[in-house]
Amino acid sequence: MTTTLVTGASGTLGTALVPRLIEDGHDVRPASRRARTGWVRADLRTGEGLADAVRGADVIVHLASSPRNPGGIDVSGTRRLVAAIRGAAGSATGWAEREAAGSATSWAEHEAAGSATSWAERETGDSATGWAEQGAAGSATGRRERETGGSAVSRTERESARSAFSRPERDETGSAVDRANGDATGRAEAERGLPRGGSGQDGSDEVGNGHDKGGQGEVRHLVYVSIIGVDRVPLRYYRAKLAAEEIVRRSGTPYTILRVSQFHPFAVGLLEKSARLGPLIIDPGFLAQPVDVADVADRIAGLLGEGPANGTLDFAGPQIMNLDEAATTWLAAKADHRRVVRLRAPGKVARAIRAGGLTTTATPTGSRTWEDYLAARY
Predict the structure, then answer these.
(1) Assuming Cys at both sites, which of 8, 28, 33, 338 could form a disulfide with 64, CB separation 3.0 to 4.6 Å?
(2) CB within 8 A of 68, min separation 6: which ones?
(3) CATH code of the domain containing 87
C-alpha cells in the first residue's frame, strides 16, 4: 500500500483529495499544523514535525499555501519540506548548505530588484488583485471611471469599486490552492522569513536533478499544486508560488508540478464581494477558467497513478469565459436582478488577466461547467 502524505489536508482541495486517495487504496497521512486525531502534526512555518511526517512516506502531495505569508509558507515552507525529504534520504545537510550558499537570486532579492510592485504602485492600484487573488483586479478611481464611460456611476458605487478593485483582503485565499496553514504571521514576519538561495532565478541546478534515480530516499513522487498564471500575472503571491515551484524542481526528488485554475466557490466569493455594496462591479474583459474541486482531486489521483512527470502541467475547467458572462450566469442562477456596473480596471494585473493569464489551452480539462456548479448550488 502506498503511504501518501498530504500537506494542507484541511483546505478546500485537501478535503476533497483525502477521501479520493483513500478510495484508490492509499494509506493517506493528512498533515496539519494543528493536532488532530488520526493526522500528523507538521508546521511548515517552523519545520516542527516535518521530519516525522515525511518519514516512511512514498508519495507527498503538497497543497499547503498562504497568500498572507507566501514567503514563510510557500517559499520557506516548501524548502523546509524538501529538506525533510532529503533528511529522510540522509542528504539534507548538504542540500540546505547549497541552497543557502547558492548563487541563485533569492526570492527576497527578486522582490527588491524590480519585479516587486512598489508601495506607490500598490497605493494607486497597479498591483491590485482580481480573479487572480482576493477581489476584482484594478483600483477603479473616479477619474478612470469617467475615462471608461463610468460617469453615471454614483459616488457610493465608485467607493465600492475602489474597495473591490484594491489591495487584497487578508482573510481570503487567492487561488485554487488551499488556505491550510493560512493563519499566517503578518507581512513583517513574512519578509523576515524570506529565504536566500534556491529560487532558481539563474536557472542553475546545483544539486543535480536526480530524477532518473527513482528518488534518492523513500519519497518516490512529490506533487506540488500551484496556480495557472504564476508566470504571467504579476502578483507577489504568484511570484512566491513560482519560487516554490523552482525549489521543487531543484529538490532532486521525482516530481510533478500541477498548476490549476480558480475553484468555482472562489469565483462565487469574488462576485459576492464585488456586489457587497449593492451593484455588481466587474471588469467584463477579465478571462477565467474556473474548475471543479472534485475534478482537480481526480486529476491528482490520476497523476499519482501515472508517476512523476518531472515537469509542469496545467489543469483547468472546460470553458474559458469572460467575467461578464460569469456574472450574468451567476445572477440568473440566483434570480438576482441587481444592477451591473462594468468598468475597465487599470494596472498590470488587470491587463494580464484580460490577456488570458489565468487560462490555459492544456488538456485534459475538468468536466463540470460553471453552469453545472451554479445549478447545483442554487
Answers:
(1) 8
(2) 170, 182, 184, 186, 190
(3) 3.40.50.720
Q: pLDDT: is 186 or 255 the higher one?
A: 255
Confidence band for 60, pLDDT divided at 50, 70 and 90: very high
Q: Which residues have C-beta within 8 Å of that of residue 161, sequence separation ≥ 6? A: 140, 145, 153, 281, 341, 343
Domain of residue 60 covers 3-377
Q: Which three cell numbers stand for residue 4?
A: 501518501
How far apart are the C-alpha atoms of 122 and 127, rounded to whole Å? 5
Four-CA torsion 103, 108, 111, 113, nearest 10 degrees: -50
> Residue 204 corresponds to which cell in the numbers above?
542553475
Element (H, E) at 168: none
- CA R_g for the chain: 21
C-alpha cell at 327: 456574472
* Packing angle, helices 236-249 and 76-88, rounded to 10: 10
Whether the ω angle into residue 364 lies within 30 degrees of 0, i.e. cis, is: yes
Half-sphere exposure of 51 (CA within 13 A, CB side): 8
Work out the pLDDT band at 218, boundaries 50, 70, 90.
confident
Domain count, the chain: 1
